[in-house]
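Provenance

Sequences were taken from public entries as deposited. Structures were produced by running a predictor on each sequence independently, with no templates supplied. The record for Tagaturonate reductase from Brevibacillus fulvus is shown for reference.
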Amino acid sequence: MQTLNKQTYPAGRRFDHLPEKIVQFGEGNFLRGFLDWMIQRMNEQELFLGRVVAIQPTPHGKVVPKLLAQDGLYTVALRGFANGEQVDRTEVVAAISRGINPYADWLEVLRLAENRQIEFVFSNTTEAGLSYFQEEYAANRAPLSFPGKLTAFLFHRFQATAGDPTAGLKIFPCELLENNGDLLKAIVMQLAKDWRLPDAFTEWLQSHNRFFNTLVDRIVIGYPKENSEEYEQRLGYRDELLTVGEPYHFFAIEGDETTAAALPFRQAGLNVFWGDVKPFRELKVRILNGAHTMMFAVAYLSGVDTVLQAMEDQQLRRFIQRGMEQEILPYIALEQAVKTNFARSVEERFLNPFNRHQLLDLALNAVTKYKLRVLPSLLDAVKTGTLPAVLCFSLAGLMLFYRGIQRDGQQLVGMREQQPYSIRDQEEVLQFFQNVWSACQGEKEQVQQLVRAVLGNESFWGENLLQIAGLEEKVGQYLRQMLHDGMRAALTRLLEGDGA
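Predicted structure for Tagaturonate reductase:
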């Protein structure tokens, strides 16, 4: 079977003449199945006429070599339902011109900063990637963090263009953080200060570059490992970057008409909204993403592997629905009909028979995700004098999921029955859980000490959760039940009202 590239798929060359206009920090499944798919749509209609350069965000990335081997080509498969009709289509995306590993070729990234045709920066480096990280600046070496790379990129552009006001960039972080554009700008400004970069650069950065708050929404499950051979037969070629997602997509950007004209998403028929993103963010992050984070550990440790399997499991579906309907929806300040309709659409998306959305993929950086997606609902419930049982149970499940039995390089290895699984998070998170679990053999006081350590870790949650009356006892009891009786038995007690 031939591999997808411009030799085997000559039509992939049709956009080779277009200039590189976008720098994209991140080359993972989501950006390729969401933003780059949108750029392709605009290019096909001759509305944008530009290509993307994808920058590898971490030292251990594996996508850029595959992008280079396939000449930037890959396939997006959209499967599900749209407007009541079944959708099952594939399309080759040729929006990415090349990928760059900045840790091996930082000078090429800097040369890209000198290109005056570059107008836009997009990113998706997970919530954990959009954070302040204190590091040293070296002109000939890539900073480790995404904000560090962006700061160094912008500084080089400032130097190469002699501070030309027209050389400023429009920057769109797509990480699922509230006010993500404002946050990224604040981190970049702080790094400029840390690195003692010239005041003239700070002024140029402030006045001539724009950071936009955004919200993205599409379930992209990535490479279909279980039925890759089926796709190869269907497509007639091998594509190691094949990306499967749902037809639904939504992109909200806090921008003006001038910016909208430069990025004509809507003219291309794409579901993009320019305006206040806050109402959309509240719905999506708490309901869609919140439900993902709420369910992943409980469902995975109950023996299922995908979101669809969890929804098809009667017990797990009751758990998910109870959490969404009784413990998340009541604390979102929007009209009931709006909330209910969105929640119903989320359940339909979870039940998409074509999506094999792996729970282990939802587990990446789960501590940060719980803080941002689930904890706000829990805290809102506490303000009303309620400890929400499902959300507390899910927190106990998260703690159990992080029970590693050994290290494997950058990961912890956990065990589900006799099956090992990878626990992927930042090093300080993995080390913390490795330490607290090594001191816990399951005795009541040991479990309670572990729960105290986790809830009291302010670096995880931004506050000391031990101050919430009853939380330590409730989570501790749930965790002991999971350890002693198994996840299924503990879940049964919860749903039958015999939990903590």
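DSSP finds 22 helices and 16 strands in the chain.
The first helix runs from residue 29 to 33.
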